[in-house]
Specification:
single chain, Nucleotidyltransferase, domain 5, 5-stranded mixed β-sheet, N-acylmannosamine kinase activity, ATPase_NBD
Length: 242
Amino acid sequence: LLARRSAKRRDVLGVGLAVAGHRMLETAFNCPLPLAHWSLIDLAPLLGEQLGLPVWADNVARTAALAEAIFGVGRDVADFAYIAHLHGYGGGLVSGGMPFRGNFGNAGEFSVLFGRQDYEERPALGVLLEHLRAKGRSNLTLRDLKNDDLMDWDGVGEWIDRVTPAHNRAINAICAIFDPALIVLGGELPHSLARMLIDRTEFNNLPRHGVLRDVPRLAVAQIIDAPGAIGAALIPLFETVL
């Protein structure tokens, strides 16, 4: 990689690593099943020793939010929430233009809003894959969802109807707790599905004395190619320079 960029090792400030899962220790995560063998391993020192470079690690949804803050629709907004529709359902918060991680490093874990009995109703793309496989698309992957004909597939509209209540629960929880100017629908969510969810969003906004409160704007993420990796590459800059 260095040779391809005509760069020297001394030119590298550090390495950012994006990991799926809840942060447990400083750079150890409790990962979902496909990455279970990465769980509870202190990754930064391990990778740093192999590369001979300092390493920072964060959750992939929060690094994607950072990419959107610097290069995407969030670059002109100080406070916004990013919902990462990946195999799971997480996100990240940006406050005052900086990543907000919370005390334990897990701010933006929107799946925590749902009990185990509601997990299959989240707008997680892993749930959509299972739904579409049951409709006959047995070998479907996340990459296959970026198909121009997606909205014509049997079961897609049915899935949108099914997850809209959970989507609205998350949106209103974000409004109540974080009060951002913007909520971004991102991750691997196809733009067509993002727009459908935005169109179906219902804010819990009862008028008081005939006046409604301000609510955030909803937008589709602009950074769609590896946002987690782009955001991870920004972490060393934020931790040392910015």
